[in-house]
């Protein structure tokens, strides 16, 4: 019989890639979406191309359920009905900057939501049947105590998001050790893709590059250009999530590339992919990116976009995942990642203009 997987956060970047990956492996996949007054499947649909949508949404082995990880009764009922072999908890308030504005909500979803899933598996007597993957984060390391960061590196979170995820990490480990559950943490470093939310800095950059190149935007405003991150490709990372649950022992793993790049590098590469070369002038909050061809300022620093407590650098050590799981963290290079995102956003911006003209009745 086909394995049954339950994915929370299925409408996000990782959830959509994971659903696609598991369906290709013959799984019966169940995804949880939150109930709202609007058509909530739209978020999933807008992430996908027409061909991808057919692969996932029209697949008879794909099922959507209304639910919310903060509702313990709802989650317990769904897990009891679905009887999953594997649970991937990807649901989260995952925007670090927003977590400073909504710390309570972030704690409810990222912390208590994880507990609700683990407790449901326990009270339903599924500890021997159901394996649980908890999406952890490099933000646990925050003010880094060691470079690179590995599974044994001490945590020092610098945001309400990181603190909430600390609880999710430790409660997962606690249930593993207390109830002999196959419950594991994947400590994912930054992972991006064409499906990344538009409020995240990488997608903000690639969209701006596309819009500036097509004359739809004048300037890109950013926070800390010095921030250094370990950026990987989300589609590669979901494979590692799956490999962790197939491992013969319940263990926690760092999921990273082992390479680090700055926000400034990301900007330069994204603009280069649309044919724009820039020169940096000034320092700190006064630094600007100048279009060499036109002399126009197209990148500026906005101090309001800085976090109250900055995380200056994150660099993961994927040795354990490479050695024990046979996972390749650099199948997609940093340059390829940026290229894929820019190419997708160039098409998106072009289509937006086409659709606008069609709406206005002046399609040419």
UniProtKB/TrEMBL annotation:
Function, as annotated: Catalyzes the conversion of GDP-D-mannose to GDP-4-dehydro-6-deoxy-D-mannose.
Ranges where the NAD(P)-binding domain occurs: 6-341
Pfam families given in the database record: GDP_Man_Dehyd
UniProt source species: Paenibacillus glycanilyticus
Keywords: Lyase, NADP
Listed cofactors: NADP(+)
NCBIfam families: gmd
UniProt-recorded name of the protein: GDP-mannose 4,6-dehydratase
This enzyme's EC code(s): 4.2.1.47
Family (UniProt): Belongs to the NAD(P)-dependent epimerase/dehydratase family. GDP-mannose 4,6-dehydratase subfamily.
Catalytic activity: GDP-alpha-D-mannose = GDP-4-dehydro-alpha-D-rhamnose + H2O
């Amino acid at each position: 019989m086909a394995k049954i997987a339950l994915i929370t956060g299925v409408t996000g970047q990782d959830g959509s890639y994971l659903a696609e990956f598991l369906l290709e492996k013959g799984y019966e996949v169940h995804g949880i979406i939150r109930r709202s007054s609007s058509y909530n499947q739209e978020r999933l649909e807008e992430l996908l191309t027409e061909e991808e949508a057919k692969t996932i949404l029209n697949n008879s082995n794909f099922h959507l359920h209304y639910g919310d990880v903060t509702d313990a009764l709802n989650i317990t009922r769904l897990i009891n009905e679905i009887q999953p072999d594997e649970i991937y908890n990807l649901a989260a308030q995952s925007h670090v900057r927003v977590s400073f504005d909504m710390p309570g909500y972030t704690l409810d979803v990222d912390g208590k939501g994880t507990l609700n899933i683990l407790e449901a598996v326990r009270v339903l007597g599924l500890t021997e049947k159901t394996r649980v993957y908890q999406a952890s984060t490099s933000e646990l390391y925050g003010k880094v105590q060691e470079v690179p960061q590995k599974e044994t590196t001490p945590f020092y979170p610098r945001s309400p998001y990181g603190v909430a995820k600390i609880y999710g990490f430790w409660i997962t480990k606690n249930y593993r050790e207390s109830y002999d559950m196959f419950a594991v943490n994947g400590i994912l470093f930054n992972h991006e893709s064409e499906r990344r939310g538009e409020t995240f800095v990488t997608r903000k950059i690639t969209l701006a590059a596309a819009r500036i190149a097509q004359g739809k935007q004048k300037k890109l405003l950013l926070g800390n250009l010095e921030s250094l991150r370990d950026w990987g490709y989300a589609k590669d990372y979901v494979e590692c999530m799956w490999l962790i649950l197939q491992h013969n022992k319940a263990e926690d793993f760092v999921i990273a590339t082992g390479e680090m790049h700055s926000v400034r590098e990301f900007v330069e590469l994204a603009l280069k992919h649309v044919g724009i070369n820039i020169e940096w002038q000034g320092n700190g909050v006064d630094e600007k990116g100048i279009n060499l061809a036109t002399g126009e300022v197209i990148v500026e620093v906005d101090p309001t976009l800085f976090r109250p407590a900055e995380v200056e650098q994150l660099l993961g050590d994927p040795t354990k995942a490479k050695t024990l799981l046979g996972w390749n963290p650099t199948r997609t290079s940093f340059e390829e990642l940026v290229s894929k995102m820019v190419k997708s956003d160039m098409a998106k911006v072009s289509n937006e203009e086409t659709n606008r003209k069609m709406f206005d009745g002046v399609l040419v």
